[in-house]
Amino acid sequence: MRRLLILFFCLTSLQSFASHTVTDELGRTVVVPDHPHRLVCLIPSVVDDVYALGAGADVIAVSDYTKYPAEAKTKPRIGLPLSPSLETIVSLHPDLVLGSADTNHIQIVNQLQQYGIPVFMVDPHGIAGIYKSIRSLGVVLNRGSAANDLIARLHSRENAVRARALGKPVVRVFMPIWYDPVITIGKHAFITELIAVAGGESVTDDIAQEWPQISLEAVIARAPEAILLVKGSKMSMKDLSTRPGWSNLAAIRQGRVDYVDDRIDFPSPVAFDAMEEMAKQFHP
What we know:
Blueprint: H1 2-17, E1 19-23, E2 29-33, E3 39-41, H2 44-52, E4 59-61, H3 86-91, E5 96-100, H4 106-114, E6 119-122, H5 126-140, H6 144-165, E7 171-174, E8 178-179, E9 182-183, H7 190-197, E10 200-202, H8 216-222, E11 226-230, H9 237-241, H10 250-253, E12 257-260, H11 271-282
Helix pairs in contact: 5-6, 6-11
């Protein structure tokens, strides 16, 4: 009996420390545990991915600004995505940290690796990038089947929105991320693609950068039919209309504004909620 107990504990230990090598979306080689159960997420969109894959119970800490899903808001915090607390992360003894290249600094990633903590990074660009990151996380979390099912459901929702918009007038919108300086969405921003699927067209979809700075004069020249704003953000139609030059936009003068939920800010499954909402806004 004693030998059997020793053998059991040995096998359990080997399973706990068993690992394999993967390549993350930055091309980095990472040795990850076969069955990670202590996950720290460095950015809110990754939290949403992990929960959507059914691994929410394995998350031991999340970054600030985590909102989705609601149950993730009760998890311990490790600080801002740009500057998480390394001390806090190390003290939690995670077996895997998950981050995203669009926000998390590689220096933080390298430091965590030096402490012996594996870090897997995703790098979503566009709607296809959201699918790719879900698939990548499915592999690293040993939830490939769940990832395939989730992607299939999201594809179905995307196709349904495309069908809803088919044959209807395309609404040309301008989405300001900030007003001074004017920051907006470019050709390769995933938000630009969400707008297009929902039956709209960003008037800045010809700009190569994902998050370009643009002059107000250039916005006026593009003559958007509507302004697209995020509900509850610091920018409102009333606020924009009182700022110098903005009233030169016909959409501002006419009060033509469409609102979308802040889920549009996350390159993860909740972005599809925003996509569906925009479709209803563009074509009630």
